[in-house]
Amino acid sequence: MKNVLPGTEHYYTDVNKTDDPTARVVSIINSLAIGASLLAFALGCILYYMTGYKIILYPAMTESALFLSVLLVTRYSRPEYGQQLMFLLHSLAIWYFGILLGPASQIYLFAPFLVFCVFLVFNTALLQVLVITASAAAILLVELNYRYPVITGLPLDKASNDALHWLAIFAATFLNGTALYYFTKESRFRNQQLQALVNQLDKTNQAMRIYVRETTHEIRSPLNVVNSILQNYIETADKEKRTVQVGIAHLEAVHFACQDMQLVISNALGWSRIEAGKDEINKSPFHFTDWILQLCDTYEYLAKRRSVHINIAFSDQVPEYILADKSKLRTIITNLLSNAIKFTKVRSIITVKAVVKNQQLIFSVTDQGRGIPVDRKEHIFDPYVTEMGQHTESSGLGLPIARHIARMMGGDLTAADNPEGGSIFTLVMPLEASTPPLSAGNNIDYGRLNGMKVLVVDDDPLNHLAFSLALKRLGVEVILADTGPQGLTKARIHEPDAILMDMIMPHVGGVEMLAQFKADKKLRQIPFILVSGNSFNEVKEEVTAAGADGFLSKPVNIEQLYTTLKELVVMA
């Protein structure tokens, strides 16, 4: 089964229970070919015994061998070639022996068999009509040949004709019955496939409705914080001075509310990656203990809003530096911290622990909430589960994604009861200690980019503001453009040191503009960085294939912006 969220495997169960389509088709072809080969051999021997004509025996034996060759075709070539070869052999045999044996062969009895074979072998309606028409015409010509002989059949006595009459009925019944059996079986299989697809689409549609509803709900809470604080400052601001004094606590609240919204969006994108089977692990060394302390400090402010304190404890065996996927580990830990803050009691303590046991890192987050009933401990890892007493908060996609990532990293994520009340979520993963990376300890040098000119091309004025604030903080002169063509004109005038351009803009997007910039001899050497709200790997691959020098995903972090500009401009 492809990678799917824990708890959503049932969406794919019906489809995955079906056999491999190619193997199923090959099995049908081979069965029909073996049956036809045995029938041809038996009838050839019987008719030769009755008539003594070798003109019957040799073609029948050849026909039998050719039917067996279908097995080689399906094994070493495409299955449809085997289907077409078998249909051709049946058609030639019916026409040949129909002419050779005369009216007693009752060739019309084989018409249903050929029709069934047409629908089994050929997929397009036009081809089916053409082949059925050609087969009907051939049978009609054979029947006309009986009345107006052009090719004379074998002279058979009355006893041979009578025996041939019954043999033809037996052969037609056998072939028609076999073809009808497989045609019915194939039709039933297709109907099951369609029903499974309908069921899957219904469940996916239901899941999507839940996804939209719950994601909207999750993002409204932090959005309400941002809106309330900003609205308060706008309404109380001095309109004449056009300035306002902002409290640091309120700025921190807005900042962390934005982080909450970013987490919701990251979870949604993570779900899409998992369902698409495009999730992967990218390990790198980093300072684990300092990183955890920074994360906990970040969430400490959110915890204070509920009078909750985060207590951190590391065992001496925990190494400072580890080798792991920092981004995915952050997804797990931030989801655990976020849920712990949501579900713990007001004025309680959240305990974060990290210990090492049997070469495994054991990381736990303990809250003092109402706990989780025994029968719900596994269901909380299903998408969007709301626990008893928590009618306005749900675990969303965080826990399913966190467990999926944990298992990708060779570990697991489990839930247990806190003896003092509440829950303990424990991440267990293989521990790989590491040495400090070469870039460890490098901080942003705000003078490094001083004097640099950067052209920002984006159709959204808010993105202009965001990039301007970040770049000016780095000492960079900012040139703004609203469209790609306008950016091209300004680049020729100002000759910037780097270009930041949004991928999706009205009329002409960033990728199309990249080609125009690279075609300009004066501008082609300027580092060109594409920016997108989509961070999927295929977008990065598209950017690379288009010839861009760099890629940034929104929201752009000032550290990422600094690193990208430093590598492409200063160190180039």
UniProtKB/TrEMBL annotation:
Its EC number is 2.7.13.3. Residues 214-433 form the Histidine kinase domain. It comes from Chitinophaga eiseniae. GO terms for molecular function: phosphorelay sensor kinase activity. The keyword Transferase does not apply. The modification 4-aspartylphosphate is found at residue 502. PROSITE patterns: HIS_KIN, RESPONSE_REGULATORY. The chain crosses the membrane at residues 25-49, 55-73, 85-104, 110-142, 163-183. This is histidine kinase. Residues 453-569 form the Response regulatory domain. Keywords: Membrane, Phosphoprotein, Transmembrane, Transmembrane helix. The lineage of its organism: Bacteria, Pseudomonadati, Bacteroidota, Chitinophagia, Chitinophagales. It catalyses: ATP + protein L-histidine = ADP + protein N-phospho-L-histidine. InterPro entries: CheY-like_superfamily, HATPase_C_sf, HATPase_dom, His_kinase_dom, HisK_dim/P_sf, Sig_transdc_His_kin-like_C, Sig_transdc_resp-reg_receiver.
